[in-house]
Amino acid sequence: MNKVFINFLSVFVVMLCMGVFTVKAQENQDSIVTVLANKAPGDLVNVAFDTQEKKDVLGAISSVDIDNLLDKNYQTYALDGIRSFVGGYTGNIWGQSPLVLVDGIPRDASNLNATEVASVTVLKGANAVVLYGSRAAKGVILITTKRGKEQALTIQTRANTGFFVPKSYPNYLDAPSYMTLYNEASDNDGIARIYSDETIYNTASGTRPYRYPDVDYFSSEFLRETYNRSDATVEVFGGDEKTQYYTNLGMSYNNDIIKYGEQGNNSDLNFRVRGNVDMQLTSWLSANADAYVRFDNNYIGRGDFWGQSSYMRPNWFTPLIPISSLDSENTALQNIIDNSNNIIDGEYLLGGNNAVQTNAFADMLAAGYIRYKSRVFQYKVSAIADLSNTIKGLSFKNTFSIDYSNYYSEAFRENYATYQPTWANMNGVDRIISLTSYGDDTNSTNEYLGDSRYEQTTSFYSQLNYERVFNEVHNITGNLIGWGYQSRNSVDSGHEGSDYHSTNNTNLGIQAAYNYADKYYVDFSGAVVHSAKLPKGNRIALSPTFTVGWRLSDENFLKNSSFINNLKITASYANLNQDIDITDYYMYQGYYDDSGWYRWRDNTMGGATVLSERGSNPNLGFVKREEYRVGLDGAFLDEKLILNVNYFNQATDGLLTQGANTIYPSYYRRWDYSYLPYINFNEDMRTGVDFSVSHNNKLGNFEYELGVVGMIYNSEAVVRDEVYQDEYQNREGKPLDASFGYISEGFFVDQADIDSHANQTFGDVLPGDLKYRDVNGDGIVDTRDQVDLGRSGSPFTYGVNLTLKYKDWTLFAMGQGQSGAIGYKNSPYFWVYGNRKYSEHVLGRWTPETANSATYPRLTTTSNTNNFRNSTFWRFDNNRFDLTKVQLTYDFPDTLFNDRSLLSEFSLYVSGQYLLTVSKEREMMEMNVGIAPQYRFYNLGLKAAF
Amino acid sequence: MRRNILLLFVFVLSLSSCENQFDPAVENFKDLDFMYTDPKFAQGVLTSAYRYLPDEYSNTEYATDDAVTNDRGNSYLQMATGSWTASYNPVGMWVDGYGAIQTLNTFIERSDDVNWVEDPEVAELFNMRMKGEAYGLRGVFLYYILRNHGGYSVNGDLLGVPILTEFQDSGADFNIPRASYQECVEQILSDLDMAISLLPIEYNNVAGPGQIPDKYANIVTLSSNYNRVMGDFSNQLLNGQIAMAFRSKVALMAASPAFRNGSNIGWDEAANYSADVLEYIGGISGLASLGDTYYSNTSELNGLSGGNNPTEILWRNNIETSRSSQESTNFPPSLFGDGRMNPTHNLVRAFPMSNGYPITHPSSGYDSSEPYINRDPRLSNYIVYDGSVLGVNDTPIYTGTNSGTDDAINRLENSTRTGYYMKKRLRMDVNYNNADGSWQGQINYTPRIRYTEIFLNYAEAANEAYGPTGASSNASYSAVDVIKAIRERALGITDDPYLDECSVDKNKMRDLIRNERRLELSFEGFRFWDLRRWDEDLNEPARGYDASTNEVFDVEQRLYEDYMVYGPIPFSEVLKYSALLQNNGWE
User: Fold this and answer.
1) Domain that includes residue A898, residue range
2) Between residues 163 and 222 of chain A, which touch chain B (CB distance below 8 Å)?
3) pLDDT tens digit string along B308-340?
4) Are B329 and B338 in contact (CB under 8 A)?
């Protein structure tokens, strides 16, 4: 079947050669205008393999002009805040994870700097993405970078500096409170207390912190109040009619909130250069070349400070042991001091204990550092031939790209000893009489190469484009596109983590479109997709899409309406074939594996064991996305009100499963073998409406623009490989993100309450433990009593953006929100049991005295698997609105600049990011546990052009 | 022309990048046809079944009256305290058992067609041995599935489990009803008999052709050929003696109170099958003198190699030359262990006095204020109590709540919950090196079948079938003779007045035999199943003892329902297959 593709490509070559020779014969004829450059630049939208005038867009496509947006909203990364401008986009597109393309090439955009970007187009509908083939079947984000312009050399610079201010830190109990409550937990469990009143008293007094430690991770001893990020960018661009060029040069630097030990030097440094040039080589041939280089250097001291801050109890050990407390007469102790590599500040030894032989503090002080280095190189070349001399309206484009990225770390590690002191009271003074040591100090002189990764992506496409207008009303477009890319990676020097198989996409795109006077539109777009993941014979499929459009506003009955400026409805049907959800190659093929081993005769005899790893399914096929979509575009009231709405109904059919629950017996699979084949079985359904509305107006010197976007989104698991005894447990018929758990009925009041309730099978329960509803009434509470408690994804998401302009002042604000989802407070911060660190939430614990007012189950030293499982008790409504950005910009008036002045443009701006969250659960949402905190970011920046 | 070249160049570039776009990179997938040409591959199909054998040190004691664990998330702990359901079954054998039977059936169906070796005599021997192993293992796995899942079904019949004697491919009908308990027992015995007929009793090298066992004499003529297949190269693979031992196990289970109405197996059969095994080692004289401390007989352990068995051992796992896993898991905290297995005061009380009397007997001389004085030496061998010394340095261990040590009750998460730690299964010369944080292991192994078990099987069955002093037709010794030998080994007494007292009372003798079984086979995975097959009280609370206060306290309740004598059929399978009946109470 490969031949089909080779043949198509051969046709390209032949056509190309014909074109070349024809053109050669007619070389003297000039004034051929390239079709691709024919369009007015202002209202062009980047779509798959093309640009289109905004008014002619048929698919569900939204575009954001980042270049202009940046004038009022400086943002670091290209995709920041897109949610506030594009309906249906939440990071996902219509609920699914999109393919990200930068200049038509699959590239990582998470670090892509906003100043380099001209526009971001979100391709939502199946008909909008089909030309990109299989891997684009869940939507595409198409980012287009800036290019040169036909104008005199212009230099534009930006500089920013800003501060990150932590929003909040977790509130853990201090050591005396912790110990008191842990004793209560011991009492609850009927076991002996482990903290004496004396220990608690001495800890609380705070006068002997080394013997009775009370470590607060979030104190100013370890953390700065803020940290800084600065960046600078220089753009140079310009050109004449033959050649245009663009260069972007930038760097950024930030430090870190931690200031302790080696982590005080944590920093990230980034440097990047982007350049491109467009050349008109002859009257019919143009070419362009792009290059991008990026360096990232991160320096980080060793030690998992944030992780340990979430589980190291405050009294657990003494991070630093004062040498002055060591018995000076004791030669064994003095020897330890003499031989130690790590005397901190000349005063302390590193502390630890049996369970905490290494720890974040000692790591930060003595363990060394890691330097991460990331390098990205990207190249792209294109040639565009106008073949109008052969066939009027025909052009040909060919692009080839290679990207490399490379990531490695240079690491330095030093082992160290920690010490656990044994204290005694000598003459009324606390003295350390012995030290138990854990580990050894080492002297390491080598930096070594740690983790390393390497990734390469090559892509190409060849496109034959036909575009012509007949009789001024018949617009005809045709496209034939061959597109493919391949990514390979290798991880670590031994290649242990490398993917043996590459990531591939190969397809042929076909498009034929017609529109009559921009009023009636018909479009067929399709792809012949190929997937090497499927068995031979099933590898090629056609993905067709059909779209029609009708501009009602051009009909006579609306033409003269003063209210309606533009009104267009579009409808499309698509049936895409994709292999994204076929996660690996050869999944259709069963096989036996002999990598296991069994030995006998005391390991002197043995041989490989042979186990089935998978059953065969020669009929495995593509996963399908079948979609119906209706869209409406409108402009009203002198274009002061702009509206775009899409309804979509999208079925994903033939998702893979192994039939373990409905078809095959449980012994068909164990951790080390499987007889299960993969089959096309499950089906998902997604439906929804996305919208974007904007309103702008001008009143004298005052201008404003308000945009609201959003999506109402529903999903359903239509077919599932599942069997449940009770129907309410079926995932089938429920949303894809339905979250199952127990219905809590509050706390058990007393033993009688427990005895009269259904038997809960999650371990012994006592008064103060959670009571769950026996949903099926079988007298037992077990996994069968889990019910659908709500959706983990939001059925309604929205974004807003607001611009106010008065003379030279611009105020911009944007926000985003969601509602209707639920979550569980189930992190270790909320689920405190056993030896977990106690957070403030345990203060509301159940005791017999507080039985009526308790907000938390009884404390326990066990894992209490009864209380700590998802239930309505821990559920919260995940509704929130975030004010993500506010920026005030002052543009110095044009009158200040003239031809002779160095500057041609100058602006100053201040902004605040993530300033405000509005939610009932704001406190929890603004708090990170076990990782670095969330920050508000305050930035001051300037922009100047020369 | 330059333009043409430029464009063609661009084209060649784009074409060159699409190699490998259309076919997946090559991978080597193997299928079962490899068996016919690659005998190692064929043997691998068989040996993979050995990997599913259950671990005798699985610690099911956590779910009995013998012990609790300080590992609060342990699945046996969860099971014993009310979490056991048909969908949460930590003692399920369904997947491992039928998984093994799948691969064994694959093997049995193809073994005759495998080109084992060029020499036809040797090839036939190989085929005999491997098929013998396969049949034997199929019986062994069906025994385990039956033990863990057989029981009275919702319609009141004593049912076994489905019997699968053919490979179930993806087109098979999986809706298979359970066979009766009796049919399962018959299937197991038939598979084991098949193994016994194909396999030598033990894999021993022979010195000359005359020593080749009769059943192979007309197949193989050269002793070197016999030794190649049936000699000590095959040590620790399933042999005739192991198959016979499993006949003893399955018959004992089937004759037991929980199953006797419906198994069609009597105590005499259990006694006969057990005696068959014991006759091979010469009956009572074959009882290994150090058998009760098999795990710590230093010189015996250090001398092991080549799959040879100490006299106590009938079947065992490979030696591990530097093992510390048991010690690091079970040593008390002061010896840097996790202190996982915490024996109960119930078990401690089951150890008699050194004079052989139970501590509750008027003649015992038991002093509750000195509870560990003059006790059965097995107590201090198997259990660490307050004041025991442990480890290379004879570290004293204090478990009383007022002792102030890390070993005290509930002191740390790895401290005991009962006041006791386990000492059985551990070697005292395994040591934690505090300086470099490593364990220094010693040679050890996990047994699969000890002869002591078969002796106890015989004693239990013979007492029931022929009374305390009667013997089965194929043996010359009675239950009393066996117990006397075991207690002499343990207590060092030849004069055993309490045994004499029991030898005239079958019921008292039964209790004594069961108690000896509890002690001798403690911490080896027996108690959980023995309590069930005897239909005894499953809900005896696990108790502890605080040496500081001389108080006995309840550590953990046992929350078993009456129907939990029999395990459940997996919930998922009952839902999928309508012909599969659930056991009573589990629906």
Assistant:
1) 683-742+786-820+870-946
2) 186, 191-192, 194
3) 999 999 999 999 999 999 999 999 999 999 999
4) yes
